[in-house]
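can u do me a favor
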């Protein structure tokens, strides 16, 4: 579209010797300003043109004004000025492409399609134009026409990955998954970045609640790109959605070998999968000390190893994590479980958050009960 705009502006910059010097200054300057992206200045410059002068090039004036308005998101005014340029004799078919785009931006899809019809061959020179026409039909719920337009575009531009992607999206929205998967593989094959294409396909399938299909496509991607951590991680998240935490943990295990930033996730998923020794193994590798000890506390509580959790007190103070009230309460609880009641109450007394303060009250009651009847707390 940028090339089309440049071509149209270059055409408009060509002037005849009969034009007045003043017109050349303002209209020519406006064309240059539009080319350089200064649309407000271009519109201000065009206001200086004498429209009463019969020698004014009205075709160029209204076309340039329409372009500047369109680029300023003033689509209604732009359409009016494009049509005025046509009335004044503008013959460039590309002008109808701009009219179509402006109508599309306004949500006037039927009018956009009419403008494309007027563009004739100019509407067939780029895959983006097929895509836009298809989207107009889609918005109007003319689903078969939308797919038909994309088929035509793919025949003319067999390497246009955007058309395959759009086709796959439409089929998925229509729940025509078999046809959609054919389009998906064509999209991946045509894509400049196949890894990203795999991810887009899986994401759309997952969004359509076709998680099993999404898993299948990402398993295939993993076979093709076994050392790509993004693929492994996305596949892991799909397994999490399916509730297969163990598989997801193993995948994050693999991802952590490819990229150490996934060590924390691997540890967390092994904790959720009840593989606590494996979880601790990865936890020890976390470089962020606060994250390491915060997660370790959760692992030890899950494991029921209160002695080791209580022994973390000095480490929690050293990394300044004791100020976290959730951590402080967790530590207090482990101290209670190990019979260190005085230390437990010391930490409970520093809790300020209302929910944890109330939990602290309950824990104090349990401490009193244990002190009165120690045999009940052993």
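np, heres the sequence
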């Amino acid at each position: 579209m940028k090339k089309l705009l440049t071509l149209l502006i270059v055409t408009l910059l060509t002037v005849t010797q009969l034009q007045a010097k003043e017109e050349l200054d303002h209209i020519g300057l406006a064309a240059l300003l539009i080319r350089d992206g200064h649309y407000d200045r271009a519109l201000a410059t065009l206001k200086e043109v004498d429209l009463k002068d019969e020698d004014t090039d009205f075709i160029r004036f209204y076309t340039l004004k329409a372009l500047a308005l369109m680029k300023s998101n003033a689509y209604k005014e732009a359409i009016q000025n494009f049509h005025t340029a046509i009335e004044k004799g503008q013959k460039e078919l590309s002008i109808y492409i701009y009219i179509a785009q402006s109508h599309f931006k306004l949500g006037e899809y039927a009018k956009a399609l009419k403008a494309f019809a007027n563009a004739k061959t100019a509407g067939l020179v780029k895959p983006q134009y097929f895509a836009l026409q298809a989207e107009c039909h889609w918005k109007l719920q003319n689903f078969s026409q939308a797919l038909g337009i994309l088929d035509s575009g793919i025949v003319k531009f067999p390497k246009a990955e955007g058309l395959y992607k759009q086709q796959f999206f439409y089929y998925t929205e229509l729940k025509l998954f078999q046809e959609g998967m054919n389009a998906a593989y064509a999209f991946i094959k045509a894509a400049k970045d196949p890894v990203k294409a795999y991810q887009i396909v899986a994401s759309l399938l997952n969004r359509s609640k076709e998680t099993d299909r999404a898993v299948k496509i990402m398993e295939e991607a993993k076979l093709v790109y076994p050392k790509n951590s993004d693929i492994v991680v996305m596949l892991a998240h799909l397994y999490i959605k399916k509730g297969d935490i163990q598989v997801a943990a193993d995948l994050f295990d693999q991802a952590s070998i490819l990229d150490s930033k996934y060590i924390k996730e691997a540890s967390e998923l092994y904790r959720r999968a009840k593989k606590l020794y494996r979880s601790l193994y990865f936890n020890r590798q976390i470089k962020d000390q606060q994250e390491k000890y915060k997660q370790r506390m959760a692992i030890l509580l899950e494991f029921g190893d209160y002695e080791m959790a209580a022994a973390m007190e000095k480490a929690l103070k050293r990394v300044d994590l004791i100020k976290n009230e959730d951590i402080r309460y967790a530590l207090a609880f482990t101290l209670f479980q190990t019979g260190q009641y005085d230390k437990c109450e010391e930490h409970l007394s520093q809790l300020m958050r209302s929910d944890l303060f109330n939990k602290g009250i309950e824990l104090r009651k349990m401490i009193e009960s244990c002190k009165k009847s120690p045999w009940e707390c052993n």
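The mean pLDDT is 90. hope that helps!!
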